[in-house]
Specification:
The protein has 13 helices and eleven strands. By secondary structure, the chain is α/β, with parallel strands linked by helices. The protein is globular, with a radius of gyration of 20 Å.
Length: 324
């Protein structure tokens, strides 16, 4: 965390500002004509895109500056990370960061990691779901895995892109089950329409992307990779309940280019806290199947650094090859 220390020494200042001082700092950092762009590393309609747009709306309301989402998918998130890292560090360009900042690095898709950014705050947490079409012959995860074992590499399982947290989750699940599937990453298009169109047999994706198809009865969720059942899907068992010792909790947060001033980061952290803890964001999160989980910059930085090491070990353990 040494590379992030410069911005973190005063990052808690927002919590200490008197209201008048904070208002002045906010106005100075983000005057009314400021346009904040939040880069999302996935295509429009994806889980990351949907949650980012909900957050951007809440952030703009509390910050008093326009906040828009720009989709820059590809290479497991590397394209978007490269773009934001190269922007002017004035708080106007942010990235909708996830654990992919580490997976892309460990897989050789990105030549720099989290230290290229200033942490602002964690926003939410979520866990992947394994889903099939509602007319699928598989009623349970065990049935799907049994067929995958008897017909190796024939069942096509989609995910949002190589190096994504969901991709890592998918590989880990089927490795734990000792089943061979045909792994199909789709980095430039939402995966759910491809499932509904019959281009893949199953998919691993986040709850936000599956929320509407589940409500419409278009898909059947076979398992959650969360440590416990999702309150929004109480009838869906965890993978662990079904005998597969795999669980994942993913997060999304915002980060700015390295060198962004401590004052700007502090104001962004303050506005993010207000946005995430608002009733508006809570309602939207419930509809999308994610959990608001604000974490301030200092703790967020520690989380990212710790997970960076853990993900490196996981990728090595499950044998994902590094790109040359």
């Amino acid at each position: 965390m040494k590379s992030w220390a410069r911005s973190l020494v005063v990052i808690g200042a927002a919590a200490l500002f008197p209201s008048a001082a904070l208002a002045g700092a906010k106005a100075a950092a983000f005057p009314g004509n400021t346009r904040i762009e939040i880069t999302v590393l996935a295509p429009a309609g994806s889980s990351a895109d949907l949650t980012a747009r909900v957050f951007a709306h809440a952030l703009a309301r509390h910050l008093g500056a326009a906040a828009v989402v720009a989709n820059r998918p590809g290479a497991g998130g590397a394209i978007g990370y490269r773009y934001v890292a190269a922007q002017k560090p004035d708080g106007s360009s942010l990235v909708w960061m996830s654990g992919s900042v580490s997976t892309t690095y460990h897989l050789g898709l990105l030549h720099f990691a989290y230290a290229a950014f200033e942490p602002v705050a964690r926003v939410l947490v979520e866990s992947p779901l394994l889903a099939v079409r509602s007319d699928s012959r598989w009623e349970t995860l065990r049935e799907l895995i049994a067929e995958a074992k008897s017909h190796p590499s024939e069942i096509m399982v989609g995910n949002p892109g190589r190096g994504s947290h969901t991709h890592i989750s998918s590989v880990a699940l089927f490795r734990a089950a000792r089943a061979e599937i045909l792994d199909v990453p789709f980095p430039m298009a939402p995966v759910v329409p491809l499932l509904l169109g019959g281009h893949v047999d199953a998919l691993l994706d986040m709850p936000a992307a599956l929320s509407n198809p589940v409500k419409l009865g278009a898909v059947r969720v076979l398992a959650t990779l969360a440590p416990v059942r999702d309150p929004a899907l109480p009838d869906v068992p965890t993978a662990q309940e079904q005998g597969y010792d795999v669980s994942f909790v993913s997060w999304h947060g915002i980060a700015a280019p390295k060198g962004t001033s401590t004052g700007v980061v502090a104001v962004l952290e303050w506005a993010t806290r207000r946005a995430v803890q608002s009733p508006e964001f809570a309602r939207a999160s419930q509809l999308l199947g994610v959990r608001p989980a604000f974490m301030p910059a200092l703790e967020f930085a520690t989380l990212v650094e710790k997970e960076h090491v853990q993900l490196g070990r996981l990728i090595e353990a499950i044998g994902l090859p590094k790109q040359p």
